[in-house]
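This part of the workshop introduces the protein records we will be handling. A record pairs a protein's sequence with a compact description of its fold. As an example, a complete record with its sequence and its structure tokens follows.

_____
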Amino acid sequence: MAEPHNGKRSKDSMMSGIEIAIYADEHFDGVSALWQEAFPNDQPWNSAVSAIPAKLAFQPGLFFVALDGNRVVGSLMAGYDGHRGWVNRIAVLQSHQAQGVGSALMREAETRLRTMGCTKINLQVRTSNAAAAEFYERLGYCVEDRISMSKRIAAN
């Protein structure tokens, strides 16, 4: 891949014609359509119209898209709090799955997080999503003995 710091696009040698780029406004419709396909029953607060502006306000350089020409075929949001990195909202169009797109997005996120000083990346997978768990295990991720907890707080 190209330099992780200064290039907005990098061509992945594993995938013919697919480029990984930092999200830009012209990618909104493509990401929205991708998320609707990948997360059809998702909560409203995870919709593109809600989640993308929130991400762009904080570490927008950790929001990637995979492009086949100008078409968005994958996306990934990452974050780093100075202690741990996080990966979420990774999605690949069904038409482009099992072609290395998700792996390329993960490599880009790992590279960028590493350059920020991140030494560990966390992610969450729904227990019902065995295919996602297997994907991450193939990339070297492992299940940790943790309980994931959350609390939704209303915005004021």
Remarks:
- The domain at 9-138 is CATH 3.40.630.30 (Aminopeptidase).
- The longest strand covers residues 71-80.
- Residues 68 and 86 are 25 Å apart (CA to CA).
